[in-house]
Each structure stands twice: as C-alpha cells, then as structure tokens.
Amino acid sequence: MDAGTVSLDWQDNWLLKEAREINPSLRAVAILNAADAQGSDNIDAADALEEAEGIEMLELTIGRRKAFPNAAALGKAVIEQNPKDPKAIKEFNTLMRFLYNNVTI
C-alpha cells in the first residue's frame, strides 16, 4: 500500500473473510510501501492499517527510493543493480527475511 493512499473500506473486507474460510490460519500482514521520508502520510496510513480488522501491521517500511523503479526498469532486484543503494538493499533484505521466516506453502 502506498503511504499516501489509504482508502479501502476495512469494515467490509470480504476478500480476507473469504480467504479465511478456505484457510482459517491465514495471516494477513501489511507494510508501508513507497513511504515518504517526512510528513504525516506514513503515520496516517499506519493508523488506518492498525484499525483494519484481521490485518497485522508490521514494523517494516519500504521507502520511496529511486533505486526500486530503476532496478525494475532493468529487470533486476534492487540488490542486483549498480550503483548500490544501501538503504534500499537493507529494506529489501528485511522484507525477504520476514517472508522466508514466516511464510509457509
């Protein structure tokens, strides 16, 4: 979710409810993506997500960095491109560690 666009109606989260009918142990998580370096949009988005029933807000943020679209334009992950962006790589690796440690198929 983009930090500046919180507009979903969380009261009628039918997709999550349907998914949990199939998989009652489904864990739904959210992160702030394309978060701004300053301003109140991130706080507003995080507050809205924390109010969302059945969705866990992670303490993980992916910043709005040129490294992400630049890498995507080259068909690469941010960890593969040069020059290296240490902050983008750290955010990417943090997300990957969470996923590998918490997702089961």
Structure overview:
- It is built from four helices and two strands; from the N terminus they run αβαβαα.
- With 105 residues, the chain is an alpha+beta fold.
- It folds into two domains: 1-64, no CATH class; 67-105, no CATH class.
- The chain has a two-stranded parallel sheet with strand order 1-2.
- The protein is globular and about 45 Å long.
C-alpha geometry = globular
Portion in beta strands: 15-25%
Strand arrangement in the largest pleated sheet: 1-2
Structural class: alpha+beta
Question: How would you summarize this macromolecular structure in one to three sentences?
Answer:
The protein has 105 residues and is α+β, with helices and mostly antiparallel strands.
Quickly list its features.
105 residues, 2 strands, 16% strand, globular, disordered N terminus
Task: Summarize the helices and strands and which ones pair or pack.
Blueprint: H1 14-22, E1 28-35, H2 41-51, E2 55-63, H3 67-73, H4 86-102
Parallel strand pairs: 1-2
